[in-house]
Amino acid sequence: MNTSILHPDIQQFIIQNTGADITKLALQKNPFPEVEWVFILNQIEARSKAKEKLPTWFNAQNIIYPSKISVEQTSSEKTAAYKAGLISGETLIDLTGGFGVDDYYFSKKFKSITHCEINEELSSIVSHNFKQLEVENCTFFSGDSIHFLEETTQKFDWIYIDPSRRNDAKGKVFMLKDCLPNVPELLDFYFEKADSVLIKTAPLLDISAGLSELKNVKNIHVIALENEVKELLFEIHKNYSGEITLKTINILKEKTETFEFILGEESFAIYDLPKQYLYEPNSAIMKSGGFDEISSAFKIDKLHKHSHLYTSEALIDFPGRKFEVKKVISYGKNDMKNELANQQANITTRNFPETVENIRKKWKIKNGGNLYCFFTTDVKDNKIVLICTKII
After folding, report:
1. Boundaries of each THUMP-like domain copy (predicted)?
2. b/e code 292-323 from CB counts within 10 Å (16+ = b)
């Protein structure tokens, strides 16, 4: 770890240039020739990325950042705080510690945290940063976490793992067995060291594929931040064999939207034509596949089996976007010409044969404005357009 970056003058320079154009900055002469210019530029770029994602690190002094990619790939503080609210106990071991954002939040819930990281430099960076952040209940191991578990006699309350895809797995369907560590293969070994395991995966993983590889799953959490799915969590308990609860969480600036259901429990959607209000589920619900469950739980009608849009006569509080339907037209030349051609509108397609790009080009519809148009298929298999205004 290069501690020369901590010189007060260099730190001041990094702070002053946070948010600056790195390409332009790179053309300047290095004002600190004793430290590699690329290293200083990386600190500036990584700190800029941390401003929104990692405000605790951004606002602390003498923080050292790893590569920009490590900052991009790490959990945000908001998702890390959510995870820490799920579990607690005396001891937790993180087998894939990374930049330590999750462990910072776990340290508030556990008496003792063990941070394992195969990259020696990254391990020492996190150790340094935790001193700056006044985290005192975390120990660090640099090396292969499997070797650490094999050697230790300690039993932990929780094992936390964020497996990464192997390079040779690119282009393949995303499976946990194609990641390091190979969790499905190692699960029995992990259960010798802890009774509970929390696995974080990328949102790319298909939930049913994850379940086909894992056992003893109790809860699955789909976490979205500002309506973008960021991660899936599989909560596993030794010898558990009951029902699986799927929980969706969409963390927004003003509120957090949640919805949950029991996986595999029979639910029936009700179908009908568009009514006064239209609902579009948030991205966490879309990822969960709980489409019939939404109709059943909120007692709202679905427009079509494959459209995943919902409608009701009376407005309800809903985990997603809400719209008032101003007009419903058929997708045909006359209606489109009279109502939308050469207009400005926000366009969404759901279960519709044409792309947004094609629709815009075909009917000369400019992007933006206050109209929200949903091109979709109704319960009678007709292609329709719902012209709406958004409800804030």
Report:
1. 320-390
2. bbbbbebebbbbbeebbbbbbeeeeebbbbbb
pLDDT in tens, 196-209: 999 999 999 999 99
pLDDT in tens, 34-84: 999 999 999 999 999 999 999 999 999 999 999 877 788 889 999 999 999
Which residue from 160, 158, 114 is spatially nearest to 138, judged by alpha carbons? Answer: 114
Distance between CA atoms of 210 and 232, rounded to whole angstroms?
10
Residue range(s) defining the domain that contains residue 37: 3-68
Quote the CA–CA distance of 15 and 116 in Å, as a whole number.
30
Looking up residue 384, the CATH number of its domain turns out to be 3.30.2130
The tokens describing 381, both together, are 């298999």
Contact assessment for residue 116 and residue 190, using Cβ atoms and an 8 Å cutoff: no
Q: Using an 8 Å Cβ cutoff, are 179 and 169 in contact?
A: yes
The number of folded domains in the chain is 3
Task: Give the DSSP letter of residue 78.
Answer: H
Pairwise CA distance, residues 303 & 283, whole Å: 18
pLDDT tens profile 297-348 = 999 999 999 999 999 999 999 999 999 999 999 999 999 999 999 999 999 9
> For residue 159, what is the enclosing H or E element?
strand 156-161
Give the end of a domain, one of 262, 282, 302. Answer: 262
Whichever domain contains 28, its CATH number is: 1.10.10
Q: Is the CA virtual torsion 209, 214, 216, 219 positive or negative?
A: negative
The CA distance from 225 to 286, in Å, is 14
| pTM of structure | 0.93
E runs forming strands in 275-345:
277-281, 301-302, 310-312, 320-330
Of 245, 68, 110, nearest in space to 102 by CA: 110
Answer yes or no: do 222 and 109 share one domain.
yes
Same domain, 151 and 253: yes
